[in-house]
Design goal:
Blueprint: H1 8-20, H2 61-74, H3 81-89, H4 116-129, H5 133-145, H6 163-175, H7 191-196, H8 224-234, H9 258-274, E1 280-281, E2 289-290, H10 292-304, H11 312-329, H12 331-344, H13 356-361, H14 373-379, H15 408-414, E3 427-428
Antiparallel strand pairs: 1-2, 1-3
Helix pairs in contact: 1-15, 2-4, 2-12, 4-5, 4-6, 6-8, 8-9, 8-10, 9-10, 10-11, 10-12, 11-12
Length: about 425
């Protein structure tokens, strides 16, 4: 769930500061960290065998690996054992994951920048693959220990709850077989309670949307990135979802449950997509740019809410422009397109003429097995045959089209934070 990056140097500086104070509590921010972190442009160190993508994994290694394994599993691909081993080796003894640990053999300590997003994404991937029960159990235990009194989660342990992190963790709990509403803080609050507190009132600007976090005055600002995440969190859905029974957009009404809030949020996304058929991202002083990653996340959210037909224009746009974006952005981007195709019943092997499965597989070690293209299409409810017009070379995951990590608001505004599943700037409708 994606703002693109041109300021990785600022992020790196903030992360260095974060390493010195990993347990600091971040101040509330209105900028949502993307649910898809950005990949810096520097090449990855050679000591990362098994990792998908060639860019520096410092800020998003676990995130992009987790999304890749999820997307491969979703399309019937059996990932390389080496790729799975890379991910499990990143886990700390207490169950937590950091964005990347250059030396997995070294023990984690108080300065290891573990975070909820990397941990939750890893849980979702490992739970889907199966066979990693101990890793999943330990990670879930750590996530439970990092729950805030309000029932939610922040990116960093001890940081204020935000919609993106809370929703990712809710999906991880669900993937691990634990009902999110049954995981309660010492004050008796759960993820649903936290999400309800992060919904924009219906009579406010952007009513029905989710905010990333309250601002310093406690006000909530609609955020498309957080809304896409909040819809999944409110419905207890993981990053991998299929379309719910068709319904009509809800009229915004004060939500009594997290599911009500999710329906309000989905209706907001319908409105946000109406103007252009895709979402845009904006940076101060720069022209608004099409936001492929956040649009893909919105498509998944609408499918989960039973509004798949309202995502048709966005899917068509992603089929036309998504491959060029993903080729610059790397495995996490290819994975987002795969998950959007899966959620809407589109053919990931022929997505606007591109074989997303082949392109994703080409970013890392060869999978153990790959189903025939026709079998993959049939799994998604379609049989369109093979598509061989995707290039065979490994895709680069660096470049300006990449989404970077955890909220730049956390990183720069507070000087502590490490990146996330990454969205960092304010999303526009």
């Amino acid at each position: 769930m994606n703002v693109r990056r041109t300021v990785t140097a600022i992020a790196a500086t903030a992360v260095i500061a974060a390493a010195a104070a990993p347990t600091a509590t971040a101040a509330p921010a209105t900028t949502a960290p993307a649910t898809t972190p950005a990949t810096p442009e520097a090449p990855a160190a050679p000591e990362a065998p098994g990792l998908h993508g060639s860019a520096d994994p410092t800020y998003d290694g676990v995130w992009r690996q987790s999304l890749t394994l999820l997307a491969q599993d979703t399309t019937g691909v059996r990932p390389a054992a080496q790729a799975v081993d890379w991910l499990t080796a990143q886990q700390c003894a207490d169950g937590a994951f950091a964005a990347f640990r250059a030396d997995p053999a070294a023990q984690c300590d108080a300065k290891t920048p573990v975070d909820s997003n990397s941990t939750a994404a890893a849980v979702q991937a490992l739970a889907a693959l199966g066979g990693e029960d101990t890793a999943v159990r330990d990670a879930v235990r750590w996530l439970r220990s990092a729950q805030n009194p309000d029932g939610g989660w922040g990116y960093l342990p001890g940081g204020p709850s935000d919609t993106n992190s809370t929703s990712l963790v809710a999906g991880a709990l669900a993937a691990a077989g634990t009902a999110p509403d049954g995981v309660r803080s010492k004050k008796g609050k759960n993820a649903h309670d936290a999400l309800l507190e992060l919904t924009v009132p219906c009579d406010a600007d952007g009513g029905g949307a989710f905010a990333y976090q309250p601002d310093k005055k406690g006000a909530l600002a609609a955020n498309a990135d957080a809304t896409a995440a909040g819809v999944l969190g409110g419905l207890d859905r993981t990053l991998v979802t299929k379309a719910a029974p068709a319904t009509d957009p809800a009229t915004c009404a004060k939500p009594r449950t997290a599911a009500d809030a999710a329906r309000n949020g989905a209706a907001h996304l319908v409105t946000a997509l109406a103007a252009k058929g895709y979402l845009v991202s904006s940076l101060a002083g720069a022209k608004d740019q099409p936001d492929h990653g956040n649009t893909a996340d919105a498509v998944v959210a609408l499918a989960a809410a039973g509004l798949t037909d309202r995502a048709d224009r966005a899917v068509t746009w992603l089929k036309r422009d998504g491959a060029a974006w993903a080729a610059k952005s790397g495995p996490a981007a290819w994975s987002q397109l795969v998950l959007a195709a899966h959620a809407t019943g589109a053919d990931a092997r022929d997505f606007g003429g591109t074989d997303l499965v082949q392109r994703l597989n080409a970013t890392g070690p060869a999978p153990e097995s790959v189903p025939d293209a026709k079998d993959t299409a049939a799994k998604d409810g379609k049989d369109t045959g093979d598509n061989d017009n995707a290039k065979d070379s490994k895709d680069d995951d660096g470049g300006p089209g990449v989404i970077w990590i955890v909220g730049i608001g956390l990183l720069v505004g507070v000087g502590i934070g490490i990146l996330l599943s990454g969205r960092r700037k304010k999303r526009q409708k």
